[in-house]
Amino acid sequence: MKDIFARTQPVLEGRLLRLRPLREEDAARVAELGGAREIADTTISVPHPFTEELARDWIRRVDEDWRAGRGLAYGMERIEDGGLVGVIVLRDLDWEHLQGEVSFWVGRPFWGHGYAEEAVRLLLPLAFGPLALNRLYAHHMVRNPASGRVLEKAGFRREGLMRQRARKWGVFEDVVLLALLREEWQAGS
Ligand SMILES: CC(C)(COP(=O)(O)OP(=O)(O)OC[C@H]1O[C@@H](n2cnc3c(N)ncnc32)[C@H](O)[C@@H]1OP(=O)(O)O)[C@@H](O)C(=O)NCCC(=O)NCCS
To answer: Would 56 be classed as within a structural domain?
Structure first.
């Protein structure tokens, strides 16, 4: 495991957003924004309903994940007003194969401002730099093209279609798999 996990999770700053570790005080806002049906509708692991208590437990868990080198989560904080607008996660860090899964959500009122794209882009130098990962992958439901667009804008390439990979609201959903390799990121960055 990398030494970086023994230190505080670094803050990553871009033009629109600051990615910062989540704090217990964020639980209410995470539950409020993440609890919208539109968020649960196209994600697999965001609970619905999403209570403040669940959000607090999740924030504690992702903090432990960082310290154990299992994964990390960031709050997307808008630079213009310091408000939390979404969350981005890098999970299932696999130190044998040097890869991990990226996922994210942006609160419904904040869609369409480029926040998700910037959040993914901000994560890449950390993932391919200090974490030295070789491959980042991500999934999205076929009926959620906005997520695919975010990932493609950040350089991810489509790898395939997993038929009926997820079950949402009792319905099986086809899911697209995308990935970005370190060498592709280096060539493009
Ligand atoms: C997907 C999501 C994260 C996008 O967040 P966002 O901050 O609005 O994303 P961005 O503004 O960076 O980019 C969205 C892109 O999708 C495009 N888009 C939006 N709706 C679309 C649609 N129906 N079809 C195709 N593209 C679409 C936008 O035009 C934009 O691309 P552009 O910059 O080329 O115009 C947000 O909608 C969300 O949180 N959804 C619910 C949770 C979720 O699905 N998370 C992803 C799980 S894999």
So the answer is: yes
Could you tell me which of 41, 70, 49 has the C-alpha nearest to residue 131? 70
pTM: 0.98
- In angstroms, the CA 114 to CA 89 distance is 17
CA-based nearest residue to 140, from 112, 115, 168, 99: 168
Segment 1-46, tens digit of pLDDT: 689 999 999 999 999 999 999 999 999 999 999 999 999 999 999 9
- Report residue 158: phi and psi, to 5°: -70, 130
Atom of ligand 1 nearest to the CA of 115: 7
Pocket of ligand 1, candidates 106, 165, 178: which has the most ligand atoms within 8 Å of its Cβ, to mutate? 106
- Domain count across the chain: 1
Helix (H/G/I), strand (E/B), else coil: 12 = strand
Type of residue found at 161: L
CATH of the domain at 130: 3.40.630.30
Q: How far apart, in whole angstroms, are the C-alpha atoms of residue 64 and residue 67?
A: 5
- Looking at ligand 1, which residue's alpha carbon is closest to its atom 36? 106
Is 102 part of a structural domain of the chain?
yes
